[in-house]
Structure formats: structure tokens, C-alpha cells
Amino acid sequence: MVAKVEKKPSELEAAYLGINAAGQYIGVAGKTIRNLLDAKKLTRYRVGRRVVVSRAELDSYMRSSADR
């Protein structure tokens, strides 16, 4: 699923991360984030040509994976 994001730049930077930044945020490689996006375990958002991931969704994913 690809959704377009309509937010102001400052709100966008706080709420969404690029693929590599998302990987750094949760301590994995950017390739791992791409794999999670392809497996539909995370939602892919588009800002122009850039793919971003919701910081809140990353937090939720990390909480759920820690429970396993």
C-alpha cells in the first residue's frame, strides 16, 4: 500500500523517516526496512519521489517484535 502524505515540512520530518534513517532509528540496515515494506509489515508512504516510513509505526513494530 502506498499513501501520499500531505503535511508541512517540519511536521513531516518529525513524523516520518526515510528508509536509511528508519533503519538507523531501529538499529537495522536500510535493506531490512525495504524487506519489511515489501512484506507489508510496514506501510510505505510517498513524498514526491521519496519513500518514507512513519516513526509511530516503527515504534509500534518494535514494541510488537519485542513481545515475541
Short synopsis of the structure:
By secondary structure, the chain is an alpha+beta fold.
Describe this structure in words.
This protein has helices at residues 9-15, 19-26, 30-38, 55-66; strands spanning 2-4, 16-18, 44-47, 50-54. It is of the alpha+beta class and 68 residues long. The protein has one domain. It has a 4-stranded mixed β-sheet. The longest helix is centred in the last third of the chain and has 12 residues, at 55-66. The mean pLDDT is 87.
- Secondary-structure-based class equals alpha+beta
Q: How many domains would you count in the coordinates? A: 1
Enumerate the spans where pLDDT stays under 50 for 5 or more consecutive residues: none
Count of helix runs: 4
Mean pLDDT across all amino acids: 87
**Order of helices and strands, N to C?**
EHEHHEEH
How are strands sequenced across the largest beta sheet? 1-3-4-2
List the quaternary state of the chains.
single chain
For the CA atoms, what is the radius of gyration?
Answer: 11 Å
Helix content bin? 40-55%
* Total number of beta strands: 4
N/C terminus separation: 25 Å
* Shape summary: globular
Biggest pleated sheet: 4 strands, mixed
Relevant terms:
about 20% strand, about 70 residues, 4-stranded mixed sheet, globular, 4 helices, alpha+beta
What order do the helices and strands come in, and which of them pair?
Elements: E1 2-4, H1 9-15, E2 16-18, H2 19-26, H3 30-38, E3 44-47, E4 50-54, H4 55-66
Parallel strand pairs: 1-3
Antiparallel strand pairs: 2-4, 3-4
